[in-house]
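Researcher: I'd like a candidate sequence for this fold, 439 residues long. If you have to choose between options at a position, lean toward the conservative one.
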């Protein structure tokens, strides 16, 4: 998040209900803007089947029926398409070849007039390859890992501490019997540093992730995911394509039930909203004036079946204020934000938030996972009746990390995915959680 652990932080925290707070964080950031910004916004009677079976066969009638059946194939022009005809939300758009060469990176493109010509990353742990062509505006760099080999100084994609001693991150002892962590590597084609991430609803083969996080050039990128026969995510496929706007994106990236993409914006302390199918910020709400401390970094909605289901939560970085707020549909397909209440404060410079799928091993009570950027770890908390963390129950899940940022639960496998801002800019996945428990 433009954050550096070595930088001294001066914090002045004010409760949400007091009208906001000021966080002084020694970082170089882009300018911010307060306020609310709005951008463009023939019934066929079925014959009695029993009567049809009893009636004698009439060849002429049969011929007429066949003709009528053929006529049914010619649907009227205004007939409604089947429900599954619509493409899944944020499915990758086809590349419009006519736009390549206009000097703008359009949806489906990775570059336009500024395509890379070399992919050397100076890392001994990867082999570098250039894919795509400038003529089709799809050039990208692919950095494949060198494999799991102890002592080579490399933690390659797909490796963990159990298969490669060079991988620093480990599952904490309490959770180790039931869970394991795997490194999916860097997201091909996504500019560093990484923000939050989420699987696209209705399209489990597509991942959205924030790139160039915390700056005005930030954006949301689309990647494919590879799954094994059990549905677990085992890899990322690219190169990534530009999916949506995402200036100042941070650890909170998720969809509402109505398909609105919600974005935590750091350090401007804003909440961005993009309507279903939109590629721009349709509404930006300044959070400081309504009492959410600067600056919001993490976002979550409590899933169905969990205590406090449907309640919206936020985390402010680096001070850790955990707030609850209300979203009310407005007249434009987005939301008004109101009634923020600060519940508690968490340690570790918290970022991403993800609720543990109910029934997961070693989680006797409903719980939440928090990515701690400053703490260099991912932790868990049991939650109370409102879906808020119980501070005394904090427990390590993953240690020896650098820059833990985003957090999300895969709706197919129940796997926990998280990204890192710095720390190699990686996407990692933790297996072992109960599948199909997310709303």
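Model: Candidate sequence:
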């Amino acid at each position: 998040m433009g954050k550096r652990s070595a930088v001294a932080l001066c914090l002045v925290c004010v409760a949400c209900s007091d009208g906001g707070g000021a966080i002084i964080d020694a970082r170089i950031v882009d300018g911010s803007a307060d306020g609310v910004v709005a951008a463009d916004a023939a019934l066929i009677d079925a014959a009695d089947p029993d009567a049809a079976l009893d009636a004698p066969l009439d060849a002429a009638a049969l011929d007429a029926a066949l003709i009528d059946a053929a006529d049914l194939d010619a649907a009227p022009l205004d007939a409604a398409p089947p429900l599954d005809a619509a493409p899944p939300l944020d499915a990758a758009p086809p590349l419009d070849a006519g736009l390549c060469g206009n000097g703008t990176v359009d949806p489906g493109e990775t570059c336009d007039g500024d395509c890379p010509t070399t992919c050397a990353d100076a890392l001994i742990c990867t082999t570098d390859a250039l894919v795509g062509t400038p003529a089709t505006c799809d050039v990208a760099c692919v950095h494949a890992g060198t494999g799991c080999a102890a002592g080579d100084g490399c933690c390659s994609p797909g490796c963990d501490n159990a298969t490669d001693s060079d991988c620093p991150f480990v599952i904490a002892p309490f959770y180790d019997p039931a869970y394991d962590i795997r490194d999916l590597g860097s997201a091909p084609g996504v500019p560093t540093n990484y923000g939050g991430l989420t699987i696209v609803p209705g399209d489990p083969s597509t991942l959205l992730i924030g790139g160039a996080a915390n700056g005005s050039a930030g954006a949301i990128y689309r990647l494919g995911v590879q799954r094994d026969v059990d549905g677990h995510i085992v890899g990322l496929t690219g190169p990534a394509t530009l999916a949506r706007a995402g200036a100042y994106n941070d650890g909170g990236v998720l969809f509402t039930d109505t398909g609105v993409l919600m974005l935590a914006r750091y350090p401007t302390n804003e909440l961005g909203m993009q309507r279903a199918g939109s590629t721009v910020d349709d509404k930006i709400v300044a959070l400081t004036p309504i009492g959410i401390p600067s600056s919001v970094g993490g976002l979550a909605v409590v899933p169905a079946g969990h205590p406090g289901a449907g309640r919206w939560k936020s985390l402010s970085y680096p001070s850790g204020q955990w707030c609850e707020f209300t979203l009310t549909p407005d007249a434009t397909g987005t939301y008004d934000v109101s009634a923020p209440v600060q519940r508690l404060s968490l340690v570790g410079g918290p970022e991403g938030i993800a609720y543990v799928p109910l029934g997961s091993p070693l989680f006797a009570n409903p719980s939440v996972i928090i990515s701690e950027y400053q703490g260099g770890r991912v932790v868990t908390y049991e939650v109370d009746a409102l879906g808020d963390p119980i501070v005394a129950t904090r427990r390590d899940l993953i240690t020896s990390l650098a820059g833990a940022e985003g957090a999300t639960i895969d709706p197919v496998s129940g796997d926990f995915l998280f990204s890192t801002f710095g720390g190699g800019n990686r996407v990692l996945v933790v297996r072992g959680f109960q599948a199909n428990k997310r709303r």
